[in-house]
Structures
1.
Amino acid sequence: MKPRETTMDVSELKRPRRWHILIFLLPALIVYTAVMILPLIETLRQSFYNTVDGQYAFVGLGNFKVLFGDPRWAADFWNALRNNFFFFLIHMAVQNPIGVALAAMLSIPRLRFSAFYRTAIFLPTLLSFVIVGFIWKLILSPIWGVAPYLMDLVGLKWLFAPWLGRPDSALIAVSLISVWQYIGIPMMLIYAALLNIPDEVIEAAELDGVTGWSQFWKIKLPLILPAIGIVSILTFVGNFNAFDLIYTVQGALAGPDKSTDILGTLLYRTFFGFQLQLGDRSMGATIAAIMFLIILAGVSLYLFVIQRRMRRYQF
Amino acid sequence: MSKARTSIVRTGAVHFALIAYTLVALFPVFLTIANSFKSRNAIFREPLAIPTPESFSLIGYETVLKQGDFIGYFQNSVVVTVVSIALVLLFGAMAAFALSEYRFRGNTLMGLYLALGIMIPIRLGTVAILQGMVATNLVNTLTALILVYTAQGLPLAVFILSEFMRTVSDDLKNAGRIDGLSEYAIFFRLVLPLIRPAMATVAVFTMIPIWNDLWFPLILAPAETTKTVTLGSQIFIGQFVTNWNAVLSALSLAIFPVLVLYVIFSRQLIRGITAGAVK
């Protein structure tokens, strides 16, 4: 960070109380605090309250106990949590390697049409979940038959199944749709990191005879690890907060048989109610609190452990 | 000689892989738009063919425009997005200016406080946000959405804009002070015009999640008069699951504005991601 200029002392002498600072800060501060921070705190607070015998009362960790252990809640909660981790793992396992590979290819110097590839591959990231969800629902639909037709072209028609409709494959299918949509972000961030590697480093490696694959593995990959770290934490926060795509593709019940239920859809159903289930504010707040803790844990892990270890690679 | 040949082979392989992935990325969008202009029979008989004079049909678009109030939804989305972006840019730039320009007690702390929201999603406060909106009678108004999106966009805007404001020359600002400009005039007349490129980047970053959001319109403003395009197409398409012409046309209508904006802003956006975001 650059040192700030010191000439402010002049105006400080002129105006002992610098009201303009407050006026510059106030609008942002008011909106941000009133609409984001206070509701967040209030939601966390409500996770400790529930209605007991018709009275709204403090129940300590009671809601959490119910969520983790009560048969009416626990099965759904652990199912959603497990699915959410699986959802995240698929993103990490598929999105990052493809993102790195695409970025590595795009960053080849003097590659023709690279701007076109970049623009095209980033396009799905801008589409809304609703569009993406419905498009893929149509493509994978056995009624329309586009997916089996395409697979037939490469002789793989026998592999086709209505993936979105089967409990054992629905979550994988939804995760891959989400990866398809978001691949642009890792691609771009890692691409930028690759471009930021100083030429001297690459030249030195080439002088030492390190080229091609081994150059990528030994020189470039360690240098783009911080970018991969950023991508991973962004993916983590995004995944544990996801809702829209699953709601669009599989509905609020996250079918078939809750096999695609993640914390976001569980929060929606719990807080808002769905069909026969009534909305439950306290349990909704409790699930939001759990999501908050998971995201906070992930972000802290990233900031205090992963990013610190990586710092030595930075220039 | 042999080195030149391997490099040609390698470049060829790279192009092949990139073209293959580009097809994967564009194919679903192409498929939707192409089929939205076809008759029902043609959609099923030859899904991969582009519309020909025989198979061309606008029946899907007619259904969509007759049944859903798409123009109304579109207006709502535009109002919400434009007003939110304007507020995020104005308030964000003001706060960023205060943080980057002045030394005052609590400066760093204030910066950290405002940066919290970059990582913690505003969605987690939904329970209390809805209660707040009910208490202030803002449910089913566009104001509710604008407030939420402004709060959601501010943290990143303050962060990016204050980085840029540190690069604005101090001499310029001090020259302005000597000429007797007030701090407000320095901000609005000297600094703001200089950080326009950064503002454009922030605007694009703020716009995408707002335009595409389904969660808050669904919870805060599901009424017919306040539906956004995203929520409107979600519900609309849900009703027409068996009318393939209508579904494909509704999807194409929803894709279209994004495509146009992307074609206009893609350089700005990509430059923003590859320069400002990673560091």
2.
Amino acid sequence: MTHCTLLEMQDFTLWAKMKERGALLSFDLEITARCNNACRHCYINLPAADREARSKELTLQEISSIADQAVALGALWVLISGGEPLLREDFEEIYMLLKRKGLLVSVFTNATLIRDEHIVLFKKYPPRDIEITVYGATEETYERVTGCPGSFIAFTNGLNRLLDAGVKVRLKAMAIRSNFHELPAIAAFCCTHTKDYFRFDPQLHLRFDGNKERNQLIKSERLTPEEIVALEKADKDRFASLRKRCNTLINDAVAHRGCDHLFHCGLGNGSFTIGYDGTFRLCSSLWAPETIYDLRRGTLREAWEEFVPQVRDMRSTRPEYLENCCICPIVNLCLWCPAHAYLETGKLDTPIEYFCQVARARAAAIQEATPSSPVLGNAQHSA
Amino acid sequence: MDITLDQICVTSEDVVARVIEDELIIVPLASGIGDMDDELYTMNETGRAIWSRLDGEKTLQSIADDLAEEFSAAPEVIEKDLLGLITELVRRKMVIVHKENAPQ
């Protein structure tokens, strides 16, 4: 008789059970909005010395309480992110308290602040993984993006120390104007340092704090739709996946296509985000005040069980939305969603022309490669 | 290590046991627990009954006696299963044998 069974995560039938009933699986925990870098494209990187931001950060005790509540709701994964999480002096305590509650912990970091104590910690108590963004393959490009002299050498030192210690590291890149010329070299850098498939993200969204100057900078870093599509087409695996999944990127079970609901994605289904100041958001990009719940005034269970359904049920009466994005047959190829619309315009239900252009360029590329695609047949009418 | 029924065992502090969707899930905390990355463990009903009794006070014999009564099973069958599971869990460092009861 077998009493104890070893499980590999992807084979775990428990996930299917939990997904089926929309149970909580994971959450993101932004432990700070501050960062030691000042990346041009970043939506959440207040200065490291920002006192106001620091004063609003969740305390260790508050994080412990929220984690207890999340564990009670069944959460198994947590992603520690920021800002730069290693800026918090109590990072190790936060990390261990989450581990000791039985959570599988991942960390997003720029790796520039990795110290001896982090290596000791991660070796003894391994994270599920550490994800690091590679902003450039050379000092010049990397530091043009980060705006921080010395950051490239700090990054390579931190990365090498993690890899030498055998910590599971995953690398990824943002494809932006400032590093566009160097993307092949960034891909090569990533592929020589880890065995992962190289992942890049060309879709920049605007800042959580609405900072106009920084938003202009982010817009200036956006690639053109043609450049994005050219990058995606050049990556054969990625493009094949896009072609294969372009009809299924949005889950039909929750989409309610053609109705007046605002949210047609998996928002608040199995996961949520905790902001540095104790705010509960249904996804990391959703910052509209009417969609945010303050955990300093209520419980996580109230947020999850009562507030999430309210947000998911939000409707639109704006013809611009109802006659465009809401029924768009290529919305699956689009960065558009109410969260990003809010960041761009202050409204949850306004189309964004740049996103439309990217979606149309992708649709045209897929159409060219797959003339029989039914979705893209419809897209011709939409565009 | 040979595990015997006169020993006392306790669950390791380097794992966390959680009940999710009515399943007992064992989450390794530290490196060296188990054999591979990204692993979790779950246990069946008997395994769960054994795990919950590993309190660092009861001998394995006492646990086997409890289980034979609870599951109305032959003691020799329970004892064999218990020793098999504990041996496996000790090998994976998920359970430790109390020092005073450990074989010299």
